[in-house]
Design a protein that fits this description.
The chain is built from 7 helices and 14 strands.
């Protein structure tokens, strides 16, 4: 440093020390900036597939108990409603502990969907030899037709039907699952990723749900620390044509790639998948394994004659993927989610009662086009 510069700095410091204390001015707040949001090309002729699936809802929550069937010990892991993917790892951790407690190290898993695959992988990590027995495997399984959103308390139970300790059990499953999903972030193909979600409405407080229906349990407040708080967007700060807009961030499952990742992880560790269809619990006698995890999802209703399982139909219209679209939108009861394998358009206009106790899995093309029409109307008014 030059002597002249040093002395000048000292002089300036001395002068400011003798002057009146200057008023501190806080830096301006960071603007509420949004990334550039590319529009969705919502056209009926871009629908390349329409799928319907049945969520296995149980009023008392998922079945995780142990049952003896002849010489077999069966640990149940089904009935998660719309929370199967979200709770899969946490639910699996509970049933795997029960299965390993039998002392057996050669264990069978029934079902190759979200709950079956995660249970099987957790069994392998616990030191077990595992065989999955299933009629279908991804992408044929019902859980492969799910929306792909982090929804850990979506139609998972009824307030009036759960036991007193269920909320704490749910929280344990939720947190375990969430932290496991963190380990899948950044993997090639983005099987799991964070997306911004925009809830749009012309009414304050969001779109009003239809009156009536069941008192579904909601526990998101118990895990509010896991995801950022939603923020209200000021008018003019976003390109959407609605009066109100709210932004949040949440996990998204790119189910096609994620399912493939799980299957590969299971097979690499020596797991086996055998195609077989069971019609009753007595069919399990043919299995060489003495301990079985039953993760058959909605299939448990027929297999186990479990009438506590209620179907909740859901339908998705799939639009051709747009790599430049990387966000989700909720508008007029329609949920739009950009995934790597397509843009999901799902109509939930009836709220949580939408599809309740409807067991029809026939795709409805007219309903799919109507949902896409809602999206098209939104983007026709969207500010570029």
């Amino acid at each position: 440093m030059k002597r002249r510069d040093f002395l000048g700095g000292v002089a300036l410091t001395s002068l400011t020390g003798c002057a009146h204390k200057l008023k501190t001015v806080a830096p301006p707040a960071a603007p509420n900036l949004l990334p550039r949001l590319m529009p969705i090309r919502a056209q009926a002729d871009r629908i390349f597939r329409v799928t319907a699936c049945l969520r296995p809802f149980r009023a008392a929550g998922p079945r995780l108990d142990v049952e003896r069937v002849g010489e077999k010990i069966v640990v149940h892991n089904y009935g998660h409603g719309g929370s199967g993917w979200s709770l899969s790892w946490g639910s699996g951790s509970i049933v795997v502990e029960k299965a390993m407690a039998t002392g057996e190290r050669d264990i069978a898993v029934l079902g190759c969907g979200a709950l079956g695959l995660t249970s099987a992988i957790l069994l392998q990590r616990a030191g077990a030899k595992v065989t999955i027995y299933a009629k279908e495997r991804p992408p044929e399984v019902r859980s492969a037709r799910a929306t792909g959103s982090w929804t850990p308390d979506s139609r998972v139970a009824l307030h009036s039907a759960v036991s007193a300790d269920f909320p704490a059990l749910w929280e344990k499953m939720c947190r375990y699952s969430f932290h496991t999903y963190e380990s899948y972030l950044g993997i090639a193909g983005n099987p799991i990723e964070w997306l911004d979600r925009y809830a749009l409405s012309d009414e304050p407080g969001g779109r009003r749900r239809p009156e009536g229906g069941l008192d579904f349990a909601h526990y998101q407040d118990r895990v509010a620390d896991l995801t950022p708080r939603a923020e209200e967007l000021a008018p003019g700060s976003h390109p959407f044509p609605t009066k109100y807009a709210r932004r949040s961030s949440s996990l998204t499952f790119n189910i096609a790639g994620y399912s493939r990742q799980l299957v590969n992880d299971f097979l690499v560790e020596g797991g086996k998948i055998e195609r077989i269809e069971f019609h009753s619990p007595s069919d399990l006698v043919q299995l060489p394994q003495r301990t079985v995890i039953n993760a058959t999802g909605y299939g448990a209703r027929a297999l186990w004659k479990d009438e506590t399982i209620v179907p909740v139909r859901g339908q998705i219209a799939w639009l051709i993927p747009q790599p430049e679209v990387n966000y989700a939108v909720g508008y007029r009861g329609v949920n739009i989610l950009s995934r790597r394998d397509g843009i999901v358009v799902q109509d939930g206009a009836a709220g949580e009662m939408d599809g309740y106790n409807i067991a029809d899995e026939t795709p409805d093309r007219a309903a799919a086009e109507a949902s896409v029409g809602v999206v098209a109307e939104l983007y026709s008014r969207m500010r570029r």
